[in-house]
Each structure stands twice: as C-alpha cells, then as structure tokens.
Specification:
6 helices, DNA-binding, mainly alpha, homodimer
DNA sequence: CTGCTTCTGTTTCAAAACAAACTTTACGAA
DNA sequence: TTCGTAAAGTTTGTTTTGAAACAGAAGCAG
C-alpha cells in the first residue's frame, strides 16, 4: 500500500520558513554587523525584558543556556551589554553602544519582516500573529504527547 | 533614547515554534523509532517526491547536502530506501519497510500537528496554510535584500 | 554561624552542522 | 572516442551545539 504524502503539513512549512529566515539573517547580520544571529536575539531579548537574568532570556528565546552564556560573554566583551551585579543575581541591560547596534539591527530585521509579509493586509497580519500565538500556546501540550511503545 | 521592542515580531515567533517543534520531535522519534529528525524528514520528502535525487531533496527541505548524504546512507543501510541506479543519476524510493516506518511516523506526526493546531477551525487552518505558503514564496525576495554598507 | 538545599551561570566533551575540497559521473564538442 | 566542463555526491576539517557535570552564591533551618 502506498504511503500518503501531504504538502500542506504545517510543521514542515514552519521548519522550512524558520530555517531560511535564520540562514539568511545569519549571513546578513554577520557580514554587515559582525554579530551572529544568537547575539542579535539575545540583544533584542534584553531590550524587551530589561533587567532580566540570563536564564530568563534563554527561556524566552528557547535557547540553550550555554548558548546564552556564550552570547552574553561575546556581547559583554564588545561592551554592548552591562552586567549590573549589585548583588549576586545579574540584571542585564544594554550600553549606549548596545542600544545603537540594536537600533541598526532592528531596522534591518523589520525590513526583512516586511519583505516576508509582502502582500499581507493589516488584517491578515493581525490574524497571522494570532495564529502564531495560539500555536505557541499549544506547544507544551504537543510536546507532552507520547504514544505508548509501538 | 530608548530602543523599542516588539513582542509580535513574526520571525521570532516562527523561530520559537519551529525550534520547539523539532526539539520535541527529535526526542520522540528517536526514543520511539530510533530515527533522527533528519532521517524522518528525508523519508517523508522521498514519499512526496518519489524518484527524485538527493540534491532535489536537500533543496526541498532546506538541508545541507552533507546532511542529506548521511541521512540517505543511514536509511539505505537500514534498508528503508532503495537507490535505483539504473543510470548514474540516482532515483530514490522507499522499500516496503520504509513505507511501513513512514506510515508509523506519519501517524505520530499528524497527531502532533493536530495538537499544535488544537482549537483551530477548518477555515482557520486553511487560512494559516495559505499564509505559510505566501511567506514561503516571499523568502527569496527577503533573502536577496541587503542594505548598503552602514 | 554551620550545614543543607536550591538556583544561576560556566565549562566540558561528544555529537551535529556547515563549508569547502575532493571524487565521481554525465554531457558536449571536436 | 577523448578531452574539457559541469553537475552530483562524498568526505574532511573546523565550528557550533547541547546535555550533563561542575562551581559559586543565596536562602533557610537549626
């Protein structure tokens, strides 16, 4: 019997789009700004969650904590983030140079998003964002699923 | 001046969802079927594009050709795919065992998709698929973009 | 304070990914 | 056929990843 293939399988599309997105972003950001895609993501997470900790950022971005640790060291060495260690817990924030780089990167990132969503009306964009949020909310239940041994 | 963060940035959501998807899928498929996520993707691409070549599959999945090459060797060693080398060019297809494994994996994959889309009406699913297809079509233009040196 | 537990971040090490070099096969022209 | 060129696939060497081990500090009980 013939297996049935589906070309509208949602996870495959998501993986394809996401890979193309970070592949292209990596190359562009590295070439133009000397920053890897992980550093860019961490930078942007700090802006969205100012004063937060490294583990919070990893959780937010779905990145491994060793990746976050390494990215933070890089960003700190380039004096783009400050580690506000008044106590033991670390509160992260951007330096002036960090904000400047972030703004430059953000401009390019928004342009790329605009190209990705070319032809989408404002209503469609809002709908898409809603769908993405709902899928995101469904992830824990999905990953909790495990069929019995086959 | 303060940088502005956006929590509805589409690429970030896509990356987050896609990572969670393949992370969970990897663990589950490896544990239950002894197959890595790449092997599963290649298997499923062969079903969708029967008789195609390794490079065509890599292109379709957005995977590096060395990854495809290794996955194909693995699948071939386990006698899940046949390399129909009548001529030089390789036409790939699944063995009976390959189809059987594919069907089992597909059942789990569809269940996971169902959980991901829990709460989506049929209309919403169709809309989502349309949006994904349109984003996918926009990718070449997006990755062609390159701002002048800053 | 001392010892115990918990939480955060770092490092290590093995596995995986990527790019580039290399090999092989096909195709076209002379 | 025999070159020369192009395309497909494999291998190699380096970089990156991620899970687990580790180290350091904070909070808490006694």
């Amino acid at each position: 019997m013939r297996s049935v293939g589906r070309d509208d399988y949602v996870p495959a599309y998501l993986s394809l789009i996401s890979n193309a997105l970070s592949w292209g972003g990596s190359r562009l950001f590295l070439r133009r700004f000397g920053v890897g895609i992980n550093e860019w993501r961490v930078l942007s997470a700090i802006v969205n969650l100012p004063g937060s900790t490294a583990s919070r950022i990893g959780e937010e971005l779905g990145l491994n904590k060793s990746v976050v640790s390494r990215s933070l060291h890089l960003l700190h060495n380039r004096e783009l983030v400050t580690v506000d260690a008044t106590d033991g817990r670390r509160a992260l924030s951007l330096t002036a140079a960090g904000h400047e780089l972030h703004d430059q990167l953000m401009a390019v990132a928004l342009k790329r998003e605009e190209l990705l969503l070319a032809g989408f009306s404002p209503q469609e964009r809002a709908q898409l964002q809603g769908y993405l949020r709902r899928m995101h909310d469904n992830i824990p239940a999905m990953n909790a699923y495990d069929p019995g041994d086959p």
